[in-house]
Design goal:
Chain lengths: 143, 143
DNA sequence: TGTTTAAATTAGCATCAACTAACCGCAAAG
DNA sequence: CTTTGCGGTTAGTTGATGCTAATTTAAACA
């Protein structure tokens, strides 16, 4: 039973790169390590894999950019993150825990289940979600 | 960041043992392998670990029984399974997918988040849940 | 009694995803 | 210049969890 992901950890890395991109000029390996609390080598190895899989490009400065493929996965994962976090908060979960749990849940949902959860979320917000809009609006600046 | 579980796979095995116990006289390694779609050796090794951790006992016939500790984890996990599955079904997810996804989600929820989801579930069912009642009612026959 | 079969186990291996230790290259600070 | 430090990489390790192949145990069947 093949899962719905590239690899759970890849989704996580790509999502982090997108999040960092959204409020920093550039993204380096070390930034990801700091954000995720992983060691430099762990991130280095992961970036190598993502590079080989065509999910990111890394320039001579070590600045990391999502490719189109990588961006697709990153946006998808981040969207799940936003929706799940908000649904949990609506259910009364603390913001911190909601974010933590969303990080794990986002990687194990089938497309069908996520679609229904998103429906539920949008229904209870009259279809309005600035956070989701921010994702679709985001376009990575080209180097 | 220590997770909330013994080990994700242990939770799964213990839950399966409980489910099998609830509608079979006895539970053997092979039954678990068939239910989970794992190989016999995988289950054998896992049972050895659970035995060493005091989660189960295995008699001379190879019949597996949950200890008090094992039962606690099994019931907790199974309860999550039931609640999540039903919530997803209520959201419009097909029964099959709901069960599949519940299997994964149940292992990554913080106690806080599960508590809120359970509240939500009970609220939308007027506090009535035959399935949850069945779990608390269940007492494993002593050998 | 001997063969066949089913369950369980042991041993060895693969993958994933983290880690530490150790090293490289370069740029800025003396 | 040389030293220092940071970012990055390589190499090797660990732990979780699955697998296959081959062996043992034991019951079942002519």
């Amino acid at each position: 039973m093949k899962a719905y992901e590239t690899h759970e950890s890849s989704e996580n890395y790509l999502e982090s790169i997108l999040m960092l991109s959204m409020d920093h000029q550039v993204v380096r390996s070390i930034d990801i390590a700091n954000m995720l609390g992983f060691s430099k080598p762990s991130v280095s190895v992961a970036m190598k894999r993502l590079r080989e899989e065509g999910m990111i490009t890394v320039d001579s400065n070590g600045y990391i950019t999502l490719t189109e493929d990588g961006m697709k996965i990153a946006k998808g994962t981040y969207e799940k993150h936003i929706v799940i976090t908000n649904v949990l908060i609506d259910l009364g979960v603390s913001a911190y825990t909601a974010g933590q749990d969303a990080c794990r849940i986002e990687h194990v949902l089938s497309p069908e289940t996520f679609a229904r959860i998103k429906d539920f979320y949008l229904r209870s917000h009259d279809g309005v979600s600035p956070e989701l809009d921010a994702i679709s609006a985001y376009e990575q600046r080209k180097p």
